[in-house]
Amino acid sequence: MSFVLAIDQGTTNTKGVLVDEGGRIVARASSALTTTYPQNAWAEQSASAIWETVQAVIADLVVQATGDIKAIAIANQRETLVTWDAETSQTIHPAIIWQCRRTAEVCDGLIFAGHDAAVVAATGLGINPLFPASKLGWVMRHVPAAQALADKGRLRAGTVDAWLLWNLTGGTSFATDHSNASRTQLFDTAKLEWSADLCNLFGAPISALPQPMPSDSRFGMTADTTALPAGVPILAMMGDSHAALYGHGIRAPGTVKATYGTGSSLMTLTPGRVASANGLSGTIAWTDSHGTAYALEGNITVSAQAAAFTARLLGLSVQALSDLAQTVPDSGGVAFVPALAGLGAPHWDDHATGMVTGMTHGTTSAHLARATFEAITCQIADVLAAMERDTGQSLAILRADGGASANPFLMQLQADVLGCPVLQSPVEEVGALGAAAMAFAHLGHVMPLEQSPPTRFDPGAKDSALAQVWARAVARARVRL
Question: What are phi and psi for residue 194, nearest 5 degrees?
């Protein structure tokens, strides 16, 4: 039996699966990660810890393997910046993760100076601290070692896929794929190359960036840095949301998928490069033997993490919070806007802050619990409405994946809020399956993607007041005091 070892490197943990040629997951492993918030609006992780969790997951899967591991596939958290010294492979600063908003003022300045339209035209992305471009500029200005290393040609700066590839290959491969590159705000998505103009604008040295390659490339071979033997090829790399889209089997425009994680990503394929007029992002879905696929995406900064946040405040587990939310028929007029790191799509307001509105003497912890789950679904609904305006198409079905999608209460609530069916993936690791499928395709094998049918949640009773309550709360969260 032959397997692909697929790594799903996320924000809260690193997961790994062994996938056989029939698309079956035969082994799983997981290792948790910690995010730190050293200052207001900052968010960081240890890049060394990220690599260590990948090593641990690989070691666990190798023990469970009952056949040959033919290839590695990688799906990774996106927009997180890792910077390191090529000579020592040591990082020079903690990984600045996608949630970090330390460059908000710099981005505001660039927008005020009139640069946003040109950046959107080249990348599909509006200027925002979410993306690594301004993060790398920050590193060059604030980390003393950065410029010195760049001057010597030793600075390496990449997203998590590039960092993992570097370590897997013992520093012999420094590359990224087109999907991850398209999320840096330094990549011209028409020319499929780094833009010198964008690098100059953000203060990012182009010499420090990895080689951009198609998502189904032969990226390199393993060195003796993990429990795997040397010589195993890395045959697929994709950002996690892109890999999930691929894992759902979506190959043409018309279907929307939502990944429910720490944040959420909604993505749909488009006929070509697009620029959103409604607060979304144009991006590259992937590049493979069929060419480059483009997509429209909406990124929500705090999604399922909102449930973990409220659960912590109330001294509950997330499951207990879900159970509590179901003890009341509605939120009693309470709305929670989880702008804990600003608001992402479609609002893109880095200055918005978290807010709870509508509380009275009759408000209970159950109302707050329900408002938290409603917030997750209302944010999804906002992005979908923007997507419908951009594409001119009405949503018929939403395909859901990610850890939080396993919660049937949340999925039913989502169907009720949207007024359309939600199809819940039978497996959480859709992104890992997508990356594995691409690696198998590189090996000349078409891997089946769906072993069992998704669970369908049809819309039921709709809270007619919820949309207005939510819209008013969002408006209040965006008011600068």
Answer: -65, 145
When pLDDT is averaged across residues 383-389 and rounded to a whole number, the result is: 95
Q: Mean of the per-residue pLDDT values for the chain? A: 95
d(CA 85, CA 151): 12
Q: For residues 14 and 31, give the distance between their C-alpha atoms in angstroms, rounded to a whole number.
A: 5
What's the Cα-to-Cα distance from 119 to each of 203, 265, 342, 348, rounded to whole Å? 14, 21, 21, 15
Residue 406, burial from CB neighbour count under 10 angstroms (0-12, 13-18, 19+): middle
β-bridge partners, 335: 357
CB atoms within 10 A of CB 461: 7
**Whole-number Å distance between alpha carbons of 375 and 260:** 13
Contact indicator for 120, 126 with CB cutoff of 8 Å: yes
Q: How confident is the model at residue 90 (pLDDT cuts 50, 70, 90)?
A: very high
Phi, psi at 16, each rounded to 5°: -145, 150
Q: DSSP for 83-103?
A: EEETTT--BSS-EE-TT--TT
| The model's pTM | 0.93
The one-character DSSP state at 453 is P
pLDDT bin (cut points 50, 70, 90) of residue 481 is low
CA distance 141 to 248: 41
| pLDDT computed for residue 427 by the predictor | 85
**Residue 21: count of CB within 10 angstroms of its CB:** 18
Give the closest residue to 59 by CA, choosing from 94, 36, 86, 27. Answer: 27
Domains and CATH numbers, the chain: 2-241 (3.30.420.40), 250-424+451-481 (3.30.420.40)
